[in-house]
Amino acid sequence: MIFGKEFLNEITMLILKYSKHKELINNLIWRLIQIFGKEGVSFLIFIICAKMLNPYEFGIYNYIMAIVFFLIMFGDFGISTATSRYVAEYNTIDKEKLKLVLFNSGFIIAALTLALLLTTLTIGKYYLGDKYVYVLYIIPLVFLAPITSLYDGIYRGLKKFKYLSRIFLIIGAFSLSFVYTLIAKYGLIGALIAQNLYYLLLFFALAAGYKDFKFAIDKNLMKKIAHYSFLVGLANIGYFLYTRIDIVILGQFGFIEEIGYYEIIQKIFKFSLMPFSIAGAVVAPDNIRLFMLKKMDQIQKRINFSFFLSLIAGIIISLLLYFLIPIFIKNFLGNYYTSDFLSIFYIFLFTIPLATIEALLATGFITALGYVRILTYTILIGGIINIILDLVFLHLFGYIGIVISTVIVHNLTNLIKFIFIYKFFYT
User: Fold this and answer.
1) For residue 347, which of 411, 422, 391, 275 has the smallest C-alpha distance?
2) For a disulfide at 383, which of 18, 189, 242, 370, Cβ 3.0-4.6 Å?
3) Is 119 domain-assigned?
4) Are 80 and 228 in contact (CB under 8 A)?
5) What's the domain count of the chain?
6) Euclidean distance between CA atoms 48 and 28, whole angstroms
7) What pTM did the predictor assign?
């Protein structure tokens, strides 16, 4: 009987805790569903390509995607992140200003995208050589990816995570009906076309669900968004320089098959870290509210909890990946189960523990609370160091030198970010 009472008390406490944090928990669940729905489609396309293309063709595919996402990075340049922040802010203090965010943010993205497209069409063939034709097939993505990210930022700022989840699940499920057919029939080109169609459908669905905006230019708002997004954009360049730039360098030096190994591992790690970024996006609006109310003690408690929870989770994830991924690759992607693949994978595992912490803190605290310069400075410097170490270590150790360089730079920059977090939030 005593056990029964204790059990009921525990259940009651859990219910009370859930009721207190119901909105946060529900938003987290729906955000998880949405992101895994979106990334799940991309991952399925990626796996199908790995299965149906030979390792060399698969390396070419990833090389092209790295180039295209380099262009997309400049098309967005942090606009979607800035939009999410100002939507959350204006939704609290200025509803009329909120209606101007979409058009003014979209105007900036359209201008950047147009400049990128003109530049690519004018000089792209001189720098990309025989790969230029593949880039042309996926040019629509240069506009579609940033504009869907913009809508995503708006819905995040409004905390409409449930609606986002439904859209991404429905569009993702529908897209799978044509993805396999296109890849099976047209190979690499089919995979590129499938990406365009998926983002096009996503754009239409997201646009149809948000109509409370005005077609009016607000120069002051545009200036604020551009200023904040510029810092985020610089940080994104830094991210590219110490992650995706490795693909470009490997391609330039002829390590095409190794690009495929590298990207498979990066996709696996991206999925492993995704829950932490999602959690950061979910708690960000509440962190902004606490920050505006100057409740720094509560923010510090949230940082402490996030830090230690992420660290423990990161260690557990590293161990699970160590045992499970080789089994998965051997049974489902046998062409890639090589000593080279395993060497790259085992070295990259050393980035996971600190990366889990960074993923949550960067999204939920650093960017959300306006301290994006922490990311900008550390990542830009880290990206530059990565390029230098890539070239030096490539000469000394071959392709594995690029992997070693990336692991060193990732862990170093994450440690520096944590030092800055302590400086800004605890002193």
Assistant:
1) 411
2) 242
3) yes
4) no
5) 2
6) 29
7) 0.71
